[in-house]
Amino acid sequence: MDVMDVGRMLVAQDPSAAYVSFWQARKHTGYTIVEEPGAVTWNELLTRDINKAVPFYEAVLGVKATVVPMPEADYTLLKVADKAVAGVMTMPKKVPAQVPSYWDPYFAVDHADAAVTKAKSLGGTPLVPTMEIRGFGRFCPLADPQGGVFSIFQPVKN
Hints:
By secondary structure, the chain is mainly β.
């Protein structure tokens, strides 16, 4: 559908059952600030069928998938040229079966623990305790008061 004269959007469900939105820019090109506190810094698909999801995004978006071996499960990076723009992982076994595949946007923060405390004071719920990603930073997935899921991420300062 057209969104006035700013762009065209599509909301769809990928073959792994995750909902995803696509944007064709017109007057509004999309993000202008990224990877700064308060802005989106990463997007990650948690899927129950990685073998259906990854080829879909490669075909629709023209991204290239690169598998990164990890101790618990492989992680797939979706790349444009040589830049990773999103990640894909198999849904962890501890996630209840009724939770469908979903995209998780990560927002950059200066202090993960302070952001979690603030989110809780506003009715948000941490889904797991804040965790360290060795060499990258600290993150915590949260649910907002309506149940929407997002993550906060405090990158390692270089």
